[in-house]
Amino acid sequence: MHISDINNAIRNRRKTLSINQSDLADLSQIGLRTIKALESGAANPRINTLQKVCDVLGLEILIRVKGPGD
Amino acid sequence: MHISDINNAIRNRRKTLSINQSDLADLSQIGLRTIKALESGAANPRINTLQKVCDVLGLEILIRVKGPGD
DNA sequence: AGCATAAATGCATTATACTGCACTTTATCA
DNA sequence: TGATAAAGTGCAGTATAATGCATTTATGCT
User: Fold this and answer.
1) Mutant choice from B48, B50, B63, B65 vs A, greatest count of A C-beta within 10 A
2) B67 within domain boundaries
3) Which of A27, B23, B42, B49 has an alpha carbon 20 to 30 Å from A51's alpha carbon atom?
């Protein structure tokens, strides 16, 4: 899944785990306001912010060389 | 490759493509100072910044659910 | 419908990424 | 070894992510 879909990835994963934004904020040690911004898609978050949320949600961010067939 | 190795990924890829930091900065529309920070690893860049550089270098950032065997 | 919980929005403040400029240090040559 | 290019560093200004608080809107349940 491409990084541009990060907002949906986060929201879907959070709902799969049945936690609300407030809980995710606490677990991630990130402000609730920031979680909302993340999920809204209108955000340009810092990589550390993303990493913290992904850690809690069991998501991982990867980087690789783009292949011919992508 | 995990996102925590982004600085090496960028530097290695840049050298593979035989361009210098200044060229990468221009092509990415990002300040030279920021490129240097990125490659030094002492950075917490915004996702858009990362994306611009990766676009030029032919790198892609992916997100996925962490599996049991990772 | 009425109530409770979750989520969205506006605003002000703080923290810090991003930037350019000037300078230093380190490679890479002829 | 001297010249040139590339990379690293310090600093100050600007842009914006991150945050909290208060309020509003949406969602779900009995």
Assistant:
1) B63
2) no
3) B23
- The pLDDT tens digits of the residues spanning A11-21 come to 999 999 999 99
Residues of chain B positioned with their CB less than 8 A from the CB of A1 = 62-64
Environment class of A37 (CB within 10 Å of its CB; exposed 0-12, middle 13-18, buried 19+): middle
Q: Which residues contact B51 (CB under 8 A, 6 or more apart)?
A: A3, B61
Question: What pLDDT sits at residue B69?
Answer: 81
Q: pLDDT by residue (tens digit) across A19-42?
A: 999 999 999 999 999 999 999 998
Given the cut 0.90, state whether the ipTM is greater than it.
Answer: yes
By the 8 A CB rule, do A50 and B47 touch?
A: yes
Using the Cβ of A45 and the Cβ atoms of chain B, whether some distance falls under 8 Å is answered with: yes
Host domain of residue B20: 3-57
Residue A10 parent element (H or E): helix A6-16
- Whether residue B8 is contained in a domain is answered as yes
Number of domains observed in the structure of chain B: 1
Instruction: Please check whether residue A69 lies inside any domain of the structure.
Output: no
Question: What CATH number has the domain bearing residue A48?
Answer: 1.10.260.40
